[in-house]
User: Which sequence fits this backbone?
C-alpha cells in the first residue's frame, strides 16, 4: 500500500487538511478530493494552461504540481472569484462583456492567469498583456476578444486608480468591491 502524506494548506481562504499519495497531482486533488471542478484538465502535461491556479499568488500549472508541493501554501482556484452575493468578479464580467469565451473550456485557466497579473495590470503594455496570457491556449481561438476583455479590465482599473489615489501607490486594488462600485457610478 502506498504511504500517504499529511498536508495542510489553504484553498480559497479555507483551511484544508488531507492525507494524500505522494504522486497525487494538485489538479486531481482539487477536482477529485475537494470537488473544485472549475479547474480544468486539457493536455495534462503543462502545455495548454487550462489547469492554471494560483499558488501563493503566482499562476502555476496544477497538472504539473503535486498536491504535496502545495503543503503550507495558499491555493486559489477559479471558484475563489465568486463574489459573496453571487455576482461576477470584474475579470469574469470583462470576459462576459467582450464575448471572450466560446466553449469555455480554457476560460478558468485564462481567468486565473489574469488574476495573477491583476495588481500589475494598470501599468502593463498591450505586448505585456499578450505575453502574460500567451501560456494559455484556446481551441476556439478567441484570443482577440480575450485581449480586448483584459484591456477593458485594465482601463477600469486605471480609472479606479485615478478616482482613488490610494490604489496608485502600491496598495492593493480592491478588486472585489471597488471596481464594481466604479462601474455602477459610470452608468448614472
Ligand atoms: S492541463 Fe495543465 S497545462 Fe494543460
Ligand atoms: S473558449 Fe473554447 S477553448 Fe477557449
Assistant:
Amino acid at each position: 500500500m502506498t504511504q500517504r502524506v499529511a498536508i495542510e494548506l489553504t484553498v480559497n481562504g479555507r483551511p484544508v487538511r488531507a492525507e494524500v499519495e505522494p504522486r497525487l497531482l494538485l489538479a486531481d486533488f482539487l477536482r477529485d478530493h475537494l470537488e473544485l471542478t472549475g479547474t480544468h484538465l486539457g493536455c495534462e502535461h503543462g502545455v495548454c494552461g487550462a489547469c492554471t491556479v494560483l499558488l501563493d499568488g503566482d499562476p502555476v500549472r496544477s497538472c504539473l504540481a503535486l498536491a504535496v508541493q502545495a503543503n503550507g501554501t495558499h491555493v486559489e482556484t477559479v471558484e475563489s472569484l465568486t463574489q459573496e452575493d453571487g455576482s461576477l468578479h470584474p475579470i469574469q464580467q470583462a470576459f462576459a462583456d467582450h464575448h471572450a469565451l466560446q466553449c469555455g473550456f480554457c476560460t478558468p485557466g485564462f481567468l486565473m492567469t489574469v488574476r495573477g497579473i491583476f495588481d500589475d495590470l494598470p501599468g502593463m503594455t498591450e505586448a505585456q498583456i499578450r505575453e502574460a496570457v500567451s501560456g494559455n491556449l484556446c481551441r476556439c481561438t478567441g484570443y482577440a476578444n480575450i485581449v480586448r476583455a483584459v484591456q477593458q479590465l485594465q482601463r477600469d482599473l486605471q480609472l479606479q486608480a485615478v478616482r482613488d489615489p490610494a490604489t496608485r501607490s502600491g496598495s492593493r486594488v480592491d478588486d472585489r468591491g471597488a471596481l464594481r462600485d466604479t462601474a455602477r457610478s459610470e452608468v448614472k
Notes: Confidence is low (pLDDT under 50) at residues 168-173, 181-188. Strands lie at 5-11, 14-20, 52-55, 58-61, 74-76. The chain has six helices and five strands.
